[in-house]
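Journal club side-thread
Mid-discussion, someone asked how the predicted structure for our own chain would compare to the paper's figures. Pasting it here so we can look after the session.
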Amino acid sequence: VKRVAGVLAGDPPAEPAAAEPTAEQERLAVEAFRTGGPVLALRAQTEPPADSAPAASPEDGPEPLGVELLIAVPDQAGVLPAVAGVLAMHRLTVRTAELRSVPLPDGVEGSVLLLDWRVAAQYGSLPQAARLRADLVRALDGTLDIAGRLAERDAAHPRRRGVEPPPPRVTVAPAASRLATVIEVRAQDAPGLLFRLGRALEAAGVRVRSAHVSTLGANAVDAFYVTRGEGVPLPREDAASVARGLEESLRG
């Protein structure tokens, strides 16, 4: 929340320090590498209200903050839009999202992407992890038309017109990182927002080195650390072109 509030106030996004993977994250990464497919783990998160006495009964217990969704998948193109699209299909709201590459244990060669997300069901119960994984496998191999599914749902349930939200804003933070180009997105949060951004980044041909996504109220603040295929930051002109493409994808 502090990072999001700072960015909303106009502060440039600082590059978060890469934390060492936990034992569970390392286990998932090794399993994903061994099986060649995505591995998921769901864990409920709760937090007691600040300055409150302990709950006297289960009914008075802490409200769930959502679910921690850990996904490890062999490094490949299309991971970000595939995961974001599957979650949007299942009507899961993304509250925070982190994506990064994690090193494998000594003696194991390869690269695995780790996604550590906090999600919550828009209504109803959460889907089973097995169902999420099955849809993610299909999304990654191209047999699940996420864009078509989301378009059909939007057409069947058009949103009511209300107060016009402010236009999305996409900027390049030139001095935020020495290792990657940082593209910052501020937009009104909406179903499928992260899916559209992920698809636009894939279409631009850039590699997402890491991503840091947060929502604060109705505002989504996303920072994408992207590089060229060889792992170097984008030239200034290319970065500006990618930013324009992201903005167009949100206005369309």
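Post-session note: The helical segments are 2-8, 23-35, 79-89, 129-141, 146-156, 193-204, 236-251.
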